[in-house]
Amino acid sequence: MRETLGRWIADAETHYAIEDFKLAAHLSQLDYLDGRTMDLYYSLVGELFDMVRSGDADPADWASLGRALDSVSRELQAGARADALFFASVAFYLGGYPASAVMTMRRTGPQYWETDEQRAAHELLTRSASPASALTRTLVASLRSGNAQVIDTAVATAELGAARALEVGPEEWVSHRLYLALLQRFRQTHLRAILPDGATRRWDPLVESFLDRWQPVWDFFPSQIEAINAGLLTSAHSYSLQMPTGAGKTALTETLIFDHLTHSAERKAVLLVPYRALARELRGSVGRHLTKMGLRSRTVYGGTVPGIEESEDLEDVRVIIATPEALTGLIGSHPELLTAISLVVCDEGHLLDSGARGVGLELLLARLKARNPSPRIVFVSAIVPNVEEINTWLGGSDTTVVRSDYRPSIAEFAVLRSNGSGSRATIGLELHEPSTSVPAHTLPEFLRPADFQFTNPSTGRRNTYAYSSTKTRAVAAARKALTLGPVAIFATEKGGDRGVVGLASELLRQIDSGLSLPLPQNYVKDTALVDSAVAYLAGEFGDDWVGTRLLQAGAIVHHGDVPQETREVLEELVSDRNVPMVMCTNTLAEGVNLPLRTMVLYSVKRSSDGSAPRAMLARDIKNLVGRAGRAGSSTRGLVICANPDDWAAVSPVAAGQPGEPVEGAVIELIRRLERALVSNRLQLTNEVIEQNAPLFPLVDGVDSALIELIRDELGANEFAQIAQQLAAETFAATKANTGEQELLQHVFELRARRIVDMRSSGRLALARTTSARPRLVDQVIDNLLPRYTAWNTADSPLDPDLVRVLVDWALEQPGFTEEAQAAYRRTQVTDIGTSLSQLVLAWLEGRTFRDIAQRVGIDIDALLRIHAKIVLFDLVTLIEQAVALIQEHTTEAGNELPPAIAAFPDFLRFGVPTPAARELMARGVRHRLAAIALGSDQAMESTTNIFATPWVTARDLLTDEDTWLPRLGELVYQRTVADVAI
Description:
- By secondary structure, the chain is of the alpha/beta class.
- Helices cover 54% and strands 9% of the residues.
- The chain has 46 helices and 19 strands.
- The strands form 4 sheets. It has an 8-stranded mixed beta sheet, with helices on both faces.
- A hairpin with a 6-residue loop joins strand 11 and strand 12 (462-464).
- The longest helix is centred in the C-terminal third of the chain and has 33 residues, at 860-892.
- The radius of gyration is 30 Å and the shape is globular.
- It starts with a helix and ends with a helix.
């Protein structure tokens, strides 16, 4: 693209930004744009045809041209506006940005397109589900059938049409020529053109699935094409893919799994994801799609010991979507899976560096790749700069690494800069864009004193709201950005003044003060739906909870302590553009896809244990800001750094620098262990290992792998050598120096000898059969089992004695008390055991969070913190293993645990008191209170139809809308009806 046109486009974008933000600023450097809209438009159209003619333009130029034409269209009317949007859409499509092309073209109506070619081009660019044009219907039919000759014929016909149109006149030629260009691009990128042997019928289920989705997929992104052309679908070797957020990793993963399993009829594929929330989301997308293609999927994310439903009929399951800890538990209970798994896709692979989660992931991958034959491993991440190193570790080669910098929408960065001080200070928005005539690329007075003036209702005087703090400016900037589309404000912490709760409180204060900044509530699309969500939050958490009050104001709170079912409700509100603002932590980067136009970074520094705040890693910032500007929702995303002092951490991301390499959490833990041993002058023993909670992820991962490998004929020394060989398979072994390698192997050797000792004592079978952690076996059998006398007779999970025994035992386990004390910090509770027992009992009874908080005497946010970290993670993890061990021990003695005990981990995980409610939750009912209400209905115990399952009974009950809608509330009722209809 010509430099002068590029500068003109950049200046026009600055001009439109001033309009979008409704700024009063006047920039004399842009005066030359006045009255020249049509001049710019004609230049852009001319450039479009120059680029079409040359055929080799840079994708970035195509994208810039598409955005410029889109911007100019706002100043045009009717047919002229439709033409500009058509030209913009063509530019996007030819540049390899089909999602932007579709989104742009859908803003035009069919009434503007008169000729067959125009209508066909419109439908090709809008991905019409029911095309009216015979030309488009023919193209779609050719995709379904695999008849590529039809597309070749269409291109040849379009070439003749363009030549004839040139003889008629320029207007006739324009539509013909651009339609030809679209068809030529489509011929190169459509689904079957890229798939190996794409015309074969084997691909029919996949192609049909892509074509029939709510957002139809007709062709692949450039990043996906690059991976497929690099042999991802035709090679048997391990691969590593580095693809930016939004570049099509999910659809590519579906394609890979489908291809692999249709070639390997008796095999299984695993999609590893780091978070339960992401696993649950993929259950409804990837899992559902593959199941409809004939590849039955199962999502496993409950815990380290698989639940009843997770383990049933595994022989018929072809695809397992799981977190690493859940897959480790599933393999422990069903070791035959290891020989059936032939493909493992590791998504969000950069989390190899993520503490306990990273340790578990690395050891699981090491265990899988050490098998003979080993499964094919495909490692996927958006942000790992040393992906070649990881690929080599996983068994790949230089030719099996695919790096792509393709992003369906661009990210623009800006930072708030203050000018002046006190009540007269103004805050400019310093844009970091390619080129512009504006000095320092700054929009002056982005925030100005007038934005913070309000009338005091009691005095009638005009006052100025204090706006010197970064928090106030971050929230104000987010409000200004509402004119562009949905906004997120990011904080590194959940609670407190510097966290998400502090941001929410700031927004509520600003709104109460009556500042003239845009109100989120004015951008709410479906007020009735939001009102029903507010009623749901009020019922669960109370009217006074900050999340309830914030939603009433048109924004949501999103962080890891908010219960999963509630997060899903809130995410859907933003995803469907019913709520325009979200205040969040990095949970937003955990795979949740929201149509965000702007992300405001309130802070990118976090502190722990009272230490000085440290900046996030550049690669984590990159992953986070990739959520701004999602494919199909926006052609660009804006990232605003609210604190100028944080710009040093953000600017490398804005500049496209690669970020920090991934070292792996195992080597970091080994290095910490080495320092601790030296500092404390300790000799490493199994006793030391089993008393230090930070080592548990390493110990548990090693033990799980060794249990699979031990055989009766192996002696202690021989088995120790096998353990050391397994240590050499870890990524840590490739990163360690000599001393670190020796310590790593020593840890594995010690655990091998511990496993041999358990074999000698006869207790190894308990761990092997249950997939419980070996270090807990003695604690459960010798310590917990004797404390409760009703293991074989209990008939309800609501026995206070049972709950107290389990809580007291958990508080004696290394690390649990420290975690509980940290979670209870800043509460008035002095007896954690009593408080936690009361909390757990109320949770099992089915109480709302509001009622539980009142019972235990703590505020809602403290309760959510304790519930998320202590109850649903630490306590459930301990108890599910304890119960599994007790059940196996009881079975060995010829007895059987009653359902109230055997299923207690599920009762605790789901917070329900009845077997029917437990089954409803386990099979996919999202709302706990709905499962409790349905599960306790007398119809669940009726003998009139003994073959009816709780699922079927619930479906029948919910047909009585007059009874159940007022009982559950509009939102919960409608979502539960949808759940049981599946």
